[in-house]
Each structure stands twice: as structure tokens, then as C-alpha cells.
């Protein structure tokens, strides 16, 4: 299922057909007042599950459960319908689900789709120009040159800076560029800072969709260290520079929260500073070059941390 | 410990090696400056002909020695001598020069063992006035040379910028040490052990 097309999905578990029909009629009534389309799917795929007394045995861990209650008067007559929520309660339930995780999931679906398109665009470099627009801002992309320019006014720049500064998934769409729009473009800039911030923003939606959690990240160029705390970013970069690691291994070795490592990995991967390889790939192994006059050999391996600490103290810097 | 602790500052004439050492040394840097006979290479009155020297006293009583290598290519023979046993190297590039990427390659080749060991950092000066080559161009050149090392814009007249470069250098060395310690903890008889090198 493409979650970008279905804003919210719901299902039933242990609910009689007559009750389901009643509920679906109510959902149709309220659907016009909801911020996006709702779709009935099987229980296992639903984000919102209406259930009878017994909880469903197999359910998505983040699905929201809504237990139906029996009409007290119905207890007197066998086979009576379970009472569905009142229509206003139903509206609250759906609206609440839109405002929570499922809404975020929809935005993440759009973000993942956009990031994948951008990644492909700049990796293949086949398209001469494209327009990226949304959230009231637009910019022109030049994939063959790995550049972009702000379309129109400085307002665009401020708007996008705010979007990426807040590290929230932007609602941006990619489309072909018209000749008139190309005439209006300004000075070009390297695409890397933009991709970097987009990668950081994507951390809310996890790792880039084409990267596996067990994939090993290998640094191929020193990255930007923008948008994250300088100390954490520096630790992540130097740790990954020392040897390839998975994102969890990187977070562990750099002593930072995994979300920080995911943000760093996304940004560095999008810019091409880091590549992801399968754990079985020979490139996943640490580099073999170890020159004889490496500093650890000269300065005494065991004493090195103490020496570095003493230097930091003398310089007045803290790691 | 008999070995000296030293950090090397390298780069072309006028890249700011003497200035960087002055920014952090606790003693006035000892420089072997002489009248510059190579005004075509760099238009300044005096330049370092052998090396600069500064130092910082550590709490252990040891001295961290800061050496500035002479920038002229004709003194290239001295670079490996100064680099031997260095804790790390700071390569300073002046972005206003004719071929900064060529400078990078020259110094990278000279200090390649330190770069490969994660014990070198590149500081780019005068990027405000001379934005090209860009940082991306430096990174691209390094990637072509199969080297991953930090490239940081820096104004070495500012002590904070010099400290930032040194902090990146120290963190890199620390990360490599942590990696080596992990590896030496494995069953890897070929890898050096603390006993073998101290």
C-alpha cells in the first residue's frame, strides 16, 4: 500500500457485519470533515482498529485500538448490536489519529518519495533542470552541475531555511521546469548544503528508504557539520572516519543518541560524503592502510588518551 | 617518555603557519625569518626559511612542540624530517593563491602517512575574499586521491579557529586510537600491541 495515497487506514476485529456497516456509514458522514482520505483495510494493515472485547492477536505495533462497548439496554436482548461511538466521538477519534503518528507517517511517505527522487536526480545527473516547490517556496535544480538557485525572491530562501532549520519534513514537490521559470532564476549554489539539511530533516522519518539498518556506512569525503550540535557532529564524523560502521554501531561508538546518528547518516548519504554497503561487501571492512609512523606508534599507544586530554586541558578545549 | 610530542603546521608561503603557531603558543614563537627572495611566489617582506617553533606546557610537565615547516618547495626535503614522530599535522591552504588545489595535493603527498592515519587536518584560509575553490572542490579532489580528511575554513589570526582545527585533529587521533584498541583486542597477531610500540 502506498501510504502517500491513503491518509488514514482503519479496520475491524471481531466486529459483526451489521456493526461494521453502521460504523462505515458514520465514517462516510464524517469523512468530509477530515483532513485526508480514510480507507478500510485488513486489520493487520490498519492504523486505527475498531475491536470487540478481545484484542486482535496480530496487530501493527503502532495501530490505535478503539474498543466498542455494548449498549447496556442491548444486554437484555441477545444479538443486539454493539454500540459504536457517537458520531462526534468518531470524528474526534479520526481527527486525533490524523494529528498523531499516522499524519506524520503520511508526511514521511511524501518526504521519502521526494528524497528518493532528488537522490536519483542528482545521482544520474541526466535531467538538465527541475523545479522544487511547496510550502510557498520554490527553487531550481541543476542536477548535471549539482547546483541549485533560488527561484524568485529572497523570501524563498528564508522560508526553506526555516523549514530545514526546524528539521521538519517539507511538503515539496518536484516537477519539470518551464522556460519562463528558468529565465527568472538567480545565482547558483552547490546542492550539498540543501541536501544535507534535507537529510537531517528526514531523520524524523528514520533512515533513508534505500538504506538498511544493517548496512555499513563508509566515509568517502569529510562531511559538512552543519545543523547538529558541533560536538556531536564532530564525534560522529571522526568516529566514522576511523572505520566503517552501521548506524547503530556509529551511535554507540560516538556516544550519541541514535537519532543523531541517523540524521548525520542521512545527510552524509544524500550528499555522497558517505556510502552505504551491505555488511557482506568487502568495502564494509575497515581500511587496511596503517603506516608505520602513525602517531599512535610514536606517542605510545596506551598513553595516548591521557596525552590528548592533557593537550585539551592546556589549550582550554573540551571534546 | 623519551619521545617528544609535536604537531606540525605545513602549507605554502603566506598560508599562515607562523600566525597559527603564534595564536596558541605560550612562548613567543621562535622563527627563522629571513628576507623573502621569492616575491613572485609570495609577496611578503620576510618568510620562514627553516622552521617556526612554539610550545605549550602540559599538566604532565611535558611540552607539546609546535613546528612550522618552511613553505617553499625547495625546502621539501625537510618536511618528512619534521613530520617524523609527529602526533599530527595541520595543512594550511591559502585560497587566494593561484592553484590552491595543487597546493593541497603537494602537501598531501608530503604528509600522506599522517593523512592516511587520520592525523591530519586541512585549514583553508581567505575563503571569505576568495570563495573558489569551494569546499566541495577540495572534498572532490581529496576523494579522487582516495583520502578522507577534514577540510575546514579558518582564519588563523583568530585563536578560536586554530583551536577548532586542533580539536578536530585531536578527535580524529582519538577515534583512530579507539578503533585500533578495538582491533588489537581481537585475535589479530599482526596488529601492533601497546607493548610493541611504547
What does this structure look like?
The complex is a heterodimer of chains A (about 325) and B (about 200). The longest helix of chain A is centred in the middle third of the chain and has 24 residues, at about 100-125. Chain A is α/β, with parallel strands linked by helices and about 325 residues long. Helices cover about 40% and strands about 15% of the residues of chain A. Chain A is built from eleven helices and 13 strands. In chain A, α6 packs antiparallel against α9 (about 260-270), α7 (about 230-240) packs across α8 (about 245-255) and α8 packs across α9. Chain A has four domains: about 5-100, Rossmann fold, CATH 3.40.50; about 125-200, no CATH class; about 205-285; about 290-319, no CATH class. Mean pLDDT of chain A is about 75; it is low at about 1-5 and about 290-295. Chain A starts with 7 loop residues before the first strand and ends with a helix. With about 200 residues, chain B is an alpha/beta fold. Chain B has a single domain (about 5-35, about 45-185), classed as Rossmann fold (3-Layer(aba) Sandwich), CATH 3.40.50. The radius of gyration of chain B is 17 Å and the shape is globular. Mean pLDDT of chain B is about 85; it is low at about 185-198. At the A-B interface, α7, α10 and α11 of A face α4, α5 and α6 of B.
